[in-house]
């Protein structure tokens, strides 16, 4: 079959009706300059027996193609979100380290230096531009370093904003329950939405606590009750004696949410209501 | 009211309100009455056009190419009363929901394609009686022009132009004027603004000239 013939014929040309994968390939990658009475052509060429059979086949194939494409695209979206959340952590860590350096250095230059990123932001603009004398030159470097901290801090915020906007599109239910940033972290720790969806809830409960778990298994510590989900208010805000129960309840709902996000994508607001109720009961009565 | 409703679309009472309705599986939480489901004209611009009695030329059972199907709010109703319905949408996220809509509608064919590149679906889509266009993106006239090849001779283009998609700062009236002047190979039969149901949207009924 030559190229010209392909680009001016229906998707079913040269496709064996029993061969789903070549049909899907043709729908996805084929092309034509203009439309034609494809259902009639398909009947005439013997691809199908009649028009209604044609539409049945077309429905199956278009649906299968779109479903695969959606899965694939969402898979790459998830990989990008994982990079984004890791980048955010890198940027915040580096910003904090440099801010400490700025603060220590400022202690040698000025009376009464502050601390942290806020202080670095404050002095980022303060000191004058490069100067000839020794002290001026050093202060200029300090101020420039502080400006780098500010830029990193801004970038960290921009990464966080992006995660907050994008994660709910890919994992609406996990984001609803955990908040978008924790949702992104859980997905990153699991290595993807699909892998998160396939984990038992006991594993989800301990995601991010791998070191503690290892220490426990080698007899050096008691067993951890929660991993990264500790940052969720429903765990950290629950009295210590009920925290394990709260962590288990949250992990259970997150696991269900991840499965819905991966397999169907429906929004299920009732998951939130159920979790709220469950946590209220745990805090009240401990079960 | 001048325009007649296509066969398969009726005005029916839901909780004491007379509303447009079609027969099919519910999709977006709309009220139902037996097989009938209310068509929410606040969420659907085509619904608003029919409700206002615009002469759309729709009679029921036609072949439709729907551009910008999103999650399927409107195209679900179209597939309820029309024949083969080809739904083009280029964003993956809403297509997930659109696939659920298609599961109960054997005449709805979902195509994850870009409406600015008709060659990528002309090998699948047959000539149609009606193009419904609601792409809410820049270059809405170009999309209509590019897709004219799909219209049968006495076919209809039912396009909704969203002013803010072309230019947020411009006066909508100017945007609509530009759209008309950029439309090529069509004769405009009717236009109507859809305010206040859909602010700054212009509904256009046109037919191809040959
Ligand atoms: C206003 S929404 C459509 C709502 C839908 N017609 C309804 O009433 O249910 C516009 C849709 O057009 C889609 N869209 C924009 N540009 C497109 C293009 N070039 N090709 C295909 N779809 C496009 C957007 O992704 C969006 O889902």
TrEMBL record, chain A:
Organism listed in the record: Halocatena pleomorpha
Domain Nop, first and last residues per copy: 170-284
Upper classification of the organism: Archaea, Methanobacteriati, Methanobacteriota, Stenosarchaea group, Halobacteria
Name this protein carries in UniProt: NOP58 family protein
Cited Gene3D superfamilies: Nop domain
Source species, domain of life: Archaea
Location of region: Disordered: 1-38
Cellular component annotations (GO), alphabetically ordered: box C/D methylation guide snoRNP complex
Any one Gene Ontology molecular-function term assigned to this protein's record: snoRNA binding
Signal peptide location: none
PROSITE patterns per the UniProt record, alphabetical: NOP (PS51358)
Pfam family for this entry, one: Nop
UniProtKB/TrEMBL annotation, chain B:
Basic and acidic residues bias (residue ranges): 9-21
TM segment ranges: none
Residue ranges, annotated region (Disordered): 1-29
One GO MF term: rRNA methyltransferase activity
Keyword Methyltransferase: yes
Main enzyme class: transferase
The EC number(s) this enzyme carries: 2.1.1.-
Record keywords: Methyltransferase, RNA-binding, rRNA processing, Transferase, tRNA processing
Chain residues that bind S-adenosyl-L-methionine: 73-74, 89-90, 114-115, 134-137
One example of a Gene Ontology biological process annotation: box C/D sno(s)RNA 3'-end processing
Role, per record: Involved in pre-rRNA and tRNA processing. Utilizes the methyl donor S-adenosyl-L-methionine to catalyze the site-specific 2'-hydroxyl methylation of ribose moieties in rRNA and tRNA. Site specificity is provided by a guide RNA that base pairs with the substrate. Methylation occurs at a characteristic distance from the sequence involved in base pairing with the guide RNA.
Protein family (similarity comment): Belongs to the methyltransferase superfamily. Fibrillarin family.
This protein's name: Fibrillarin-like rRNA/tRNA 2'-O-methyltransferase
Organism this protein belongs to: Halocatena pleomorpha
Gene: flpA
């Amino acid at each position: 079959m030559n190229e010209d013939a392909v680009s001016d014929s229906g998707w079913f040309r040269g496709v064996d009706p029993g061969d789903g994968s070549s049909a899907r390939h043709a729908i996805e990658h084929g092309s034509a300059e203009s439309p034609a009475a494809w259902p009639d052509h398909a009947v005439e060429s013997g691809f199908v027996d009649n028009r209604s059979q044609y539409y049945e086949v077309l429905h199956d194939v278009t649906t299968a193609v779109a479903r695969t494409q959606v899965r694939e695209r969402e898979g790459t979206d998830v990989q990008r979100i994982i990079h984004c959340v890791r980048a955010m952590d890198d940027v915040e860590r580096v910003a904090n380290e440099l801010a400490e350096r700025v603060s220590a250095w400022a202690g040698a230059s000025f009376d009464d230096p502050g601390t942290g990123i806020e202080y670095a932001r404050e002095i980022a603009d303060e000191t004058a531009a490069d100067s000839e004398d020794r002290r001026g030159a050093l202060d200029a470097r300090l101020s420039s370093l502080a400006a780098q901290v500010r830029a990193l801090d801004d970038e960290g915020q921009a990464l966080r904003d992006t995660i907050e906007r994008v994660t709910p599109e890919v994992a609406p239910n996990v984001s609803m329950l955990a908040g978008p940033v924790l949702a992104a972290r859980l997905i990153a720790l699991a290595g993807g939405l699909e892998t998160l969806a396939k984990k038992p809830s006991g594993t989800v409960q301990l995601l991010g606590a791998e070191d503690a778990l290892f220490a426990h298994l080698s007899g050096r510590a008691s067993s951890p009750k929660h991993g990264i989900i500790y940052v969720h208010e429903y765990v950290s805000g629950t009295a210590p004696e009920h925290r394990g129960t709260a962590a288990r309840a949250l992990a259970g709902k997150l696991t269900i949410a991840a499965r819905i996000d991966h397999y169907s994508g429906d929004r299920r607001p009732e998951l939130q209501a159920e979790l709220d109720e469950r946590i209220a009961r745990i805090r009240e009565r401990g079960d | 009211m001048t325009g007649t409703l296509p066969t398969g679309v009726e005005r029916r009472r839901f909780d004491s309100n007379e509303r447009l309705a079609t027969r099919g599986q519910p999709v977006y939480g709309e009220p139902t009455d037996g097989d009938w489901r209310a068509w929410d004209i606040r969420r659907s611009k085509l619904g608003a056009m029919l409700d206002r009695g615009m002469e759309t030329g729709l009679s029921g059972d036609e072949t439709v190419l729907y551009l910008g199907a999103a999650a399927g709010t409107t195209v679900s109703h179209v597939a309820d009363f029309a024949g083969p319905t080809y739904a083009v949408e280029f964003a993956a996220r809403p297509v997930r929901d659109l696939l659920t809509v298609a599961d109960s509608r054997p005449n709805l064919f979902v195509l994850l394609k870009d409406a600015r590149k008709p060659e990528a679906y002309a090998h699948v889509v047959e000539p149609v009686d009606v193009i419904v266009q609601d792409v809410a993106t820049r270059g809405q006239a170009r999309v209509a022009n590019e897709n004219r090849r799909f219209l049968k001779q006495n076919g209809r283009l039912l396009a909704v132009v969203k002013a803010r998609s072309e230019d947020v700062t411009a006066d909508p009236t100017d945007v609509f004027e530009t759209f008309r002047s950029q439309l090529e190979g069509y004769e405009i039969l009717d236009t109507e603004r859809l305010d206040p149901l859909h602010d700054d949207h212009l509904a256009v009924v046109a037919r191809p000239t040959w």
